[in-house]
Structure prediction request, 196 residues.
Amino acid sequence: KSLLSSNCDKNGVMVDVKLLKTKEVELRFDTSQIEPAKGYVFKGLEIEPQKITIAGTVDKLSAVSSITVGGEALKRSNISSNDNETINIEEYLPEGIQLADEDAGTVAVRILIEEAGTKTILLPVRSIKVNGTPEGFDVTYGPEQEVELKFSAPTEILEILTSEKIIAMIDLTEFKEEGTYDVPVQIIDAPEQCEY
Prediction:
């Protein structure tokens, strides 16, 4: 790609040429601000095009491996159906980087939302982590040896969801005396897109 300028004087026409290298990079989108309605899950994005060609000096291009679009661009709340957004990618180019084709800066993004399925997992109580056990006390459990947890997620996630993929915890920091307590189970890690 060249940037051209000209100067006319008595010696004729002088042309200044600046040569820029080009590079194809992937587009990445922050989806952290997409919030589906209750009972629905975010399934992913359809992006067209998925890559763009950028131009810049060798030094500038070497520092860019992808272009990231911030979460604000796709911010949604309480959505229960697919949604579309058109992104002007020029707004997200790093300093010193430009589009190789100035007319190719529009990216179409489709936000995919689907109704969640559900699955019940029986989690052995012995696998639940304990936080804040009071000094000098031991934790024992009641007669139920498993807790029943219900998850919602896309079908393909539910198919591979097992108790081994879930990390749960109970917090005992507020309990200072001997006794029997009902303590809520907190899910601290589960496969992405699972809701408890």
The first strand starts at residue 2 and ends at 9. The chain has a mean pLDDT of 87.
